[in-house]
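tool_call: predict_structure(chain=1)
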Amino acid sequence: MRQNMTGSGASGKSGAAAGTLGAGDIGAGDMTDEQRDQLATQLVDRFSLWSGAAGLIPLPLVDVAAVGGVQIQMLRRLSEIYGVPFSDNMGKSIIASLAGSIIPASTAAGAAISVMSLAKSIPGVGTVVGALTMPAFSAGATYIIGKVFIQHFASGGTLLDFNPPDYREFIKAQKEKLSSRSTATRGDTGKGA
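tool_result:
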């Protein structure tokens, strides 16, 4: 059974103004499960792109903060779509713990993100490496986080009962899917030349 939305505070009308269907345009109870899942998938795709763009910010660690903000906003909007109560503090905590599941060791995750971000401060090669790796990592991580929450919310879960270890296999499958998608894209670009 779906829960009523509380505390999100967003009207969702910005999606209608931009020509897309937003969570506030149709009440969470007025959508079919298929419509809700389709809207959520479109939202995750869009926020993954925004996260990749945030990863392009040339200032070390500012990009990390921007990506985190994009991910929190995505989680807030997914909560609205599925009628799940949302709290900023709970959302931040969950995304941090889920990020540790996406990259095997959470200390390695923090270090890897920081190194990618800080590489931008090294003139020349560091700037190029940071500019190429951070957007790709940010977009991929945001995509996986979004897919996990679609799965969780669609099965009736809330932020309070979310347990990242329950989604290890799902995360692994999403990583493989994302990896095979990027490999296929790279293979297609070389054939047309």
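agent: The CA atoms of residues 100 and 106 lie 4 Å apart. Proceeding to next step.
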